[in-house]
Amino acid sequence: MLCVIKHCVILYFLKKIQRLYQTYNMAKELTPRSENYSQWYNDLVTKADLAENSAVRGSMVIKPYGYAIWEKMQQVLDGMFKETGHQNAYFPLFIPKSFFSKEASHVEGFAKECAVVTHYRLKADEKLGIIVDPDAKLEEELIVRPTSETIIWDTYRRWVQSYRDLPILINQWANVVRWEMRTRLFLRTAEFLWQEGHTAHATEREAIAEAEQMLRVYATFAREYMAMPVLTGVKSPNERFAGAVETYCIEALMQDGKALQAGTSHFLGQNFAKAFDVKFVNKENTQEYVWATSWGVSTRLIGALIMAHSDDNGLVLPPRLAPIQVVIVPIFKKEEEFAAITERVQEVMKELRKRGITVKYDDRDTHKPGFKFAEWEMKGVPVRLAIGPRDLEKGTVEVARRDTLEKETLQFIHIAEKIEHLLEKIQENIYQKAFDYREQNTFKADNWEDFKTKIEAGGFVLAHWDGTTETEIRIKEETKATIRVIADNIAPETGKCVYSGNESKRRVVFAKAY
RNA sequence: CGGGGUAUAGCGUAGUCCGGUUAUCGCGCCUGCUUUGGGAGCAGGAGGUCGGGUGUUCGAAUCACCCUACCCCGACCA
User: Fold this and answer.
1) In the structure, how far is the CA atom of residue A62 from the C1' atom of nucleotide B36, in angstroms?
2) Which tens digits make up the pLDDT trace of A73-92?
3) Is pLDDT of A281 > 90?
4) Contact of A273 with A289, CB cutoff 8 Å
5) pLDDT higher than threshold 50 for residue A2
């Protein structure tokens, strides 16, 4: 009897918990970061309406709001590339398989994740429906580009004869495919969007200068637009791009203490020139191989942007990359009030637009203000204005900032100017917060036990390394940490390798990475 | 690609172990009224090849086999 009552009580509470859970879900809330960081990230991407998984394994649909962020990134970066003398062009999606075998380490690096086109036709089959036509086999199979070095260098061979044809400074905006085993929205997908710069130079020095210049462009973009502090430097030989002589990178620290490579720039030496026989005649009339670079950033930057700043209420976007910088929510009961508010809003919008600020008036009458507040907060709009009858009376406006969630009521007078300043302040504050976080999560480790503890806890760990790939691999096997960057802001100092105890000339940055 | 898990309406789910009337609930959606300064309330309504296929059975969301997709953990990687 007692048992039955107990059972009923338990059932009752189970139902209650389920009800609570359902309410929680409908409220569009995020899983808190502290509870499950990965889940938080996935929730955020979905609920901020940035992207979703598609019918194709590992490939995502980038939704309009997410794509708008990418467009902003593209616009800024494209301007920076043009300023540094580059031009855009477009090379094919398909690459003949034979091209790949020409640069040995390059093939090795990418062979395992290439999609291959083998046929060019389908046909109807009575039993199986549509099938690949076995009679339509390609003479030479085509690789869907995982990166374009090979096809581009095959092309450059025909473009370069004399030193007068150099340098070639080209960028392309494109999609690439890398058949990844485990994918995550934006961070790692089978197909992704990126830009890849490919340059050809007469001298080694000039090529190195180019690779370094583009790294600085990326670092500037990350810091000034994404409000994301980055370390710059070079990769260890083990982490180098397949086919590169030197790989430069920008490396950022995410809120869960894991590192994320946000952009790379490669000095390719003469590897591709030799593989594709790209020579030029110099002023002394002798044949020389061309020197090369390549550099790229991808839609992964959106993942970095999300993880760098966002909180448990949703996305936090830096004003300089926010598709909508200011959203205005009217608060009204009667039609007349709405009309009067709208009139006032038009004035504000005009002033804001004059200053180049992107503003949206959320005049939907299908949702209540509270709903709109929550929605725009989830989408990370930096500044929200609310205007209601009380504001019209007093000549005020409520200004809420997304980064701190603070609200204040300001006078209408010079409101556009105040908001312009506020946007700048938000941009700075977001950067500062991310910077402070990184500082607080950067540690030194001088012995193996300490190293393991600190790596486990997360963050950047600065430690001495003997410079051998063998040690690097051992460390990775034992701790999952890799050398993220041999950072150029860390001064050389002698010491003992944290793993082997051998001589070391400098500390390098270790972390677990995405 | 290995190991584990999941798949029921747009989303989140109950039911599956132990097969049996018309498949549960919440959110969302539609209509109406009342609401609107932080995710509105009430009333009514629509919406389902139970991931796909094959089988077992009088009868399958439920059992068996196969396939597919997604999630978590490893190996690989921007």
Assistant:
1) 33
2) 999 999 999 999 999 999 99
3) yes
4) yes
5) no
Provide mean pLDDT across the span A331-348. 95
Tokens of A275: 């593989």
Give the distance, in angstroms, between residue A185 CA and nucleotide B69 C1': 16
Please report how the helices A64-83 and A204-220 are oriented relative to each other, as an axis angle in degrees rounded to 10: 140
> Which nucleotide is at minimal CA–C1' distance from A181?
B76
Tokens of residue A481, six digits = 């940490």
CA A70 from centre of chain: 9
**Domain A443-511, architecture per CATH:** 2-Layer Sandwich (3.30)
C1' of B9 to CA of A47 (Å) = 20
Q: Which residue is nearest to nucleotide B77 (CA to C1')?
A: A180
**Nearest-CA residue to the C1' of B1?**
A181
Choose between A218 and A57: higher pLDDT.
A218
pLDDT(A141) > 80: yes
Q: What is the Cα gyration radius of chain A?
A: 27
Average per-residue pLDDT for chain A: 91
pLDDT digits (tens, 9 = 90+) for A293-306: 999 999 999 999 99
Any idea which nucleotide's C1' is nearest the CA of A390? B37
The separation, in Å, between residue A7 CA and nucleotide B63 C1' comes to 28
ipTM above 0.90, yes or no: no
| CATH topology classification for A61-115+145-309 | BirA Bifunctional Protein; domain 2 (3.30.930)
**Phi and psi for A131 in degrees, rounded to 5?**
-130, 165
The structural domains of chain A, with segments of one domain joined by +, span 61-115+145-309, 324-421, 443-511
Q: A324-421 architecture in CATH?
A: 3-Layer(aba) Sandwich (3.40)
Residues in contact with A75: Cβ distance below 8 Å, sequence separation at least 6, in sequence order? none
Q: Which nucleotides of B are covered by protein (CB under 7 A)?
A: 1, 11-14, 25-28, 35-40, 68-78
Secondary structure string (H, E, C) spanning A197-214: EEEEECCHHHHHHHHHHH
Residues A294, A206: Cα–Cα separation, whole Å: 13
Mean pLDDT score, A56-61? 82
Distance A345 CA to B38 C1' (A): 21
